């Protein structure tokens, strides 16, 4: 008699556990749809935009005629990550790109979402489609397990999210026919034509282009352990390395694939697990591989640091000079500060691109 009772109790226990997991999973998914967004206006190409047609496409690479743009060299390919925590920022970034380009219908968006939250990825896709029904985009899933074992803790837990490292895997995630891409973080807005940035000449050998900041203290991005080890510090012996922000990059994916740069980045991350050589998440491996070997882009394409430092998120001013892109890198995000009624002055420049549907608008 004891055995059937034990089985009944175990069955009940597993049933309750299943219900609990289902409820928590549904609650997590629901957090992605509590925010509702307005539909953005449709934007059209100017008359002088290049035409994208099937004749220019390799039929073996992309046989579906409706998806011609995703392999077109005449398209501007933009890659971004998508997650629930930053979806509001992503929506604003997309709107700013479309609003300020002359050829919005020639932009192909490539979004990367975590495969570990496939339900959320579907909701994120639906959210984008609802606000941008005419947007040409695809959502790719990123396997967190491919990088989670390589991640070392950094100075801010948000920097340790596996999706932060997806930019290192774009050459593997995106179709082989995509040869050049502009990578953008989700906490920025453009106020200039992204086609100008995408057309940055990369020369004969360079893999990527980004704004460089050679006045920054480059040594501070690595630990004394790194600099005191000659075999490590000599990494930069034949280069003049400068800090660059990986939130805005133009990447030649063909050259990346040929040089197997994902493996080079992973090798530095593996070393970091054995002996701590840096503190700041996904940035230092990029610096180790590319600093001193990139094509510098005008600083106007990344007015970064507007989110403040990684500890306090204090307000900051713009750097001197023209502005094409505003980037709230750092701890403070404009949507969070606006919601808390503690905005920084420059957060007012982000607000016009916010597509969040307010409760008042929902009731009207």
Automatic annotation (TrEMBL):
Q: Which UniProt keywords apply?
A: Glycoprotein, Glycosyltransferase, Membrane, Signal, Signal-anchor, Transferase, Transmembrane, Transmembrane helix
Q: What is its EC number?
A: 2.4.1.-
Where the protein is mainly located, per its record? membrane
Species of origin reads: Populus euphratica (Euphrates poplar)
Extract the signal peptide range: 1-29
The cellular location(s) given in this protein's UniProt record come to:
Endomembrane system
**Which Pfam family, any one, appears in the UniProt record?**
Glyco_transf_8
Gene3D superfamilies linked to this entry:
Spore Coat Polysaccharide Biosynthesis Protein SpsA, Chain A
User: Does GTP-binding show up as a keyword for this record?
Assistant: no
Q: In which pathway does it act?
A: Glycan metabolism; pectin biosynthesis
Decide whether keyword Signal is in the record. yes
- Lineage: superkingdom: Eukaryota
User: Its family?
Assistant: Belongs to the glycosyltransferase 8 family.
Q: Which GO terms describe its cellular component?
A: Golgi apparatus
Q: What class of enzyme is it?
A: transferase
Stated name of the protein: Hexosyltransferase
| Molecular function terms, GO-annotated | glycosyltransferase activity
In the bilayer, the protein is annotated as: Single-pass type II membrane protein
Q: Which PANTHER family match?
A: GALACTURONOSYLTRANSFERASE-LIKE 2-RELATED, GLYCOSYLTRANSFERASE 8 DOMAIN-CONTAINING PROTEIN
Name of the encoding gene:
LOC105130460
The cross-references to SUPFAM superfamilies, in alphabetical order and at most eight, read: Nucleotide-diphospho-sugar transferases
């Amino acid at each position: 008699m004891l055995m059937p009772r034990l089985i009944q109790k175990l069955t009940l226990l597993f049933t309750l556990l299943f219900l609990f997991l289902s409820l928590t999973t549904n609650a997590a998914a629901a957090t992605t749809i509590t925010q509702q967004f307005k539909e953005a206006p449709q934007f059209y190409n100017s008359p002088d935009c290049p035409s994208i047609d099937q004749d220019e496409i390799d039929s073996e690479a992309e046989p579906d005629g409706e998806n011609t743009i995703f392999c077109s060299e005449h398209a501007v390919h933009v890659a971004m990550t998508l997650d629930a925590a930053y979806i509001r920022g992503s929506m604003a970034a997309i709107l700013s790109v479309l609003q300020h380009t002359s050829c919005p219908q020639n932009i192909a968006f490539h979004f990367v979402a975590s495969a570990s939250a496939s339900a959320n990825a579907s909701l994120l896709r639906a959210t984008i489609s609802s606000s941008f029904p005419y947007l040409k985009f695809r959502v790719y899933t990123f396997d967190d397990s491919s990088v989670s074992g390589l991640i070392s803790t950094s100075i801010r837990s948000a920097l340790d999210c596996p999706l932060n490292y997806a930019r290192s895997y774009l050459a593997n995630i995106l179709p082989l026919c995509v040869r050049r891409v502009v990578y953008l973080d989700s906490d920025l807005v453009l106020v200039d034509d992204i086609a100008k940035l995408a057309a940055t000449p990369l020369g004969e050998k360079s893999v990527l282009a980004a704004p460089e900041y050679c006045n920054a203290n480059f040594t501070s991005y690595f630990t004394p352990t790194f600099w005191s080890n000659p075999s490590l510090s000599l990494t930069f012996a034949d280069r003049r390395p400068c800090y660059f922000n990986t939130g805005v990059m133009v990447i030649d994916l063909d050259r990346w694939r040929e040089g197997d740069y994902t493996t080079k980045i992973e090798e530095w991350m593996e070393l970091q697990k054995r002996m701590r050589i840096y503190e700041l998440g996904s940035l230092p491996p990029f610096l180790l591989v590319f600093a001193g070997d990139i094509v510098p882009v005008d600083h106007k394409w990344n007015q970064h640091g507007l989110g403040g430092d990684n500890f306090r998120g204090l307000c900051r001013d713009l750097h001197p000079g023209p502005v094409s892109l505003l980037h709230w890198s750092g701890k403070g995000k404009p949507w969070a500060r606006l919601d808390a009624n503690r905005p920084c002055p420059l957060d007012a420049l982000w607000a016009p691109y916010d597509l969040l549907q307010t409760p008042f608008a929902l009731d009207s």
